[in-house]
Specification:
The chain contains 11 helices and 11 strands. The protein has helices spanning 7-16, 31-42, 59-64, 76-88, 102-110, 151-167, 191-202, 217-221, 223-228, 247-261, 285-296, and strands at residues 21-26, 46-52, 68-72, 94-97, 124-130, 138-141, 174-178, 210-215, 241-243, 264-270, 276-277. The radius of gyration is 20 Å and the shape is globular.
């Protein structure tokens, strides 16, 4: 499989499979989510079931569309629980958040009895970014879910990222463990995690993945500026995945490349039985569509 290097290539790849996934969406009454769902339907990626209050929708349009289904559910807590139950029972392939509070849907997803998270799994968020100045998709974690990852959570992030990149045809992903500098600082609580993860990578715990760190952004993503430092790293400014030390740095980077670099984004939750598209209310329709496409590759 040739590596997928853009969201347009991802869409074409999914179209070539001739398989529509069943997307279950909780209250896509906002313009951005509804547009993203329709775009995914029209592109042949999914058929969709929407749960919500019919008074917020053009029901004549939905009922006339062969690839759309609507389930009346005015209470968003009940809608969230029902959507999760559908996906858990195999009546849906992808769960998606619409105009519903994140904590309401997450509570249903994380329910020990009825949720989508197998016991012991780490739930985290992986984003894919198409940055105009970077020659391929860049994957990152975690800008959304885990504030201060511990060793177990960081390890899970890397395992999930290896799985993600594998589905994109990247046989030996380069994974950079980020810091403000390439010099290890034992006073930082995440530095021991980084060193342990690198040792595990050398043992083959992450398959053929190449893992190195701590690295700064230049060494991870900019071969020209990184080469000035003359640091011996197998990443060489060509990372496929960047793992951030914490939520703050990841979230700021995520929003900065959107705002100032014109990056296109998509992201999904990992650690659940089925893919979950958990987008922000501020995300564009394009970002939400990209997220559906990311979920569709699993």
């Amino acid at each position: 499989m040739h590596p997928i290097t853009s969201f347009s290539e991802l869409t074409k790849h999914l179209q070539n499979t001739n398989e529509r996934k069943h997307l279950v969406v909780v209250n896509p009454s906002d313009v951005q989510t509804f547009e993203a769902v329709l775009r995914a339907v029209d592109a042949g990626l999914v058929h969709a079931t929407m749960l919500g209050d019919s008074k917020h929708y053009d029901m004549a349009f939905i009922e006339a569309h062969p690839m759309l289904e609507f389930i009346e559910c005015k209470d968003l807590k009940a809608a969230s629980e029902r959507a999760v139950a559908m996906v858990k029972a195999g009546d849906g392939d992808i769960l998606m958040k619409g105009l519903v509070n994140t904590d309401v849907l997450l509570k249903a997803i994380l329910s020990k009895e009825h949720g989508l998270v197998p016991y012991g799994n780490v739930v985290t968020f992986i984003a894919a970014m198409e940055i105009p100045s970077y020659p391929k998709l860049l994957f990152m974690s975690d800008p959304a879910v885990i504030p201060a990852p511990n060793l177990r959570q960081r390890t899970a992030m890397i395992e999930y990222a290896v799985r993600m990149t594998g589905n994109f045809g990247i046989a030996r992903p380069k994974i950079a463990l980020l810091h403000g500098t390439e010099k290890p600082n034992p006073k930082l609580n995440f530095m021991d995690d980084y060193l342990h993860i690198i040792q595990e990578a050398r043992k083959g715990v992450f398959g053929d993945a190449i893992v190195d760190g701590p690295l700064d952004i230049f060494l991870a993503l900019n071969p020209e500026l990184g080469s000035i430092k003359q640091v011996n790293t197998p990443i060489q400014g060509d990372a496929d995945v960047v793992i951030f030390p914490g939520f703050e740095a990841a979230n700021v980077f995520y929003k900065t490349v959107i705002t100032f670099a014109g990056a296109e984004m998509g992201g999904i939750l990992f650690g659940t039985d089925k893919p979950v598209v958990m987008t922000s209310r501020s995300d564009t329709a394009a970002s939400k569509f990209n997220s559906i496409a990311l979920a569709g590759i699993f």
